[in-house]
């Protein structure tokens, strides 16, 4: 992407980006129910959000709303998908085919984001050559060559903490530009490589705290 193209890309606030997938799920359900237009007020009520906030989020997608009708349902869905980069297919690599990795390989929800895990790697010799949910498991020594050859830019990391940094080094060295990190390790990566940490402990802590307060 050239500097000029980067400058013309709209900048979305991170909270808006985080809410967009929630909107997409609700909009998809409304379209399936036969709705041709999406009202920001109705969407906000459905999700328990503030209507002014929803209206601002939808307006950022660049599709004008119509008075007393709302936003064209399919157009606003397409615009949000474009904003998230989900309007074109993305191939990804998964590293670590343990319990969590295997579950993610079988997770059908990635299809909604136009994401497909096309290859997986693991160091466990018992897993090598196996096919897990349609994805073949390869040895770690093949990772640099295959990831480069397949031009994969997105990786999902589900290895033990002790192997996390070494795997991140191999992925960034092979040209991966984004890592979805399910380990608890704060990865050190080169400039230009983005890391999104997925900490399952945080939502669990919120739920546990709420339940403990109720019991008191």
Work out the strand percent.
Answer: 15-25%
Per CATH, the superfamily of the largest domain is: NAD(P)-binding Rossmann-like Domain
Poorly predicted ranges: 1-9
Q: Identify the overall geometry.
A: globular
Strand order of the largest sheet: 5-6-4-3-7-8-9
How many separate helices? 9
Distance between the termini: 56 Å
Name of the CATH class of the largest domain: Alpha Beta
Characterise this structure.
The chain is α/β, with parallel strands linked by helices and about 220 residues long. It folds into two domains: about 5-85, Arc Repressor Mutant, subunit A (Orthogonal Bundle); about 90-200, Rossmann fold, CATH 3.40.50. It contains nine helices and nine strands. The protein has helices at about 5-10, 15-30, 40-45, 50-60, 75-85, 100-105, 145-150, 160-175, 200-215, and strands at about 35-40, 70, 90-95, 115-120, 130, 135-140, 155, 180, 195. The strands form two sheets. The protein has a seven-stranded mixed beta sheet with strand order 5-6-4-3-7-8-9. It has a two-stranded antiparallel sheet with strand order 1-2. α2 runs antiparallel to α5 (about 75-85). The model is unreliable at about 1-10 (pLDDT under 50).
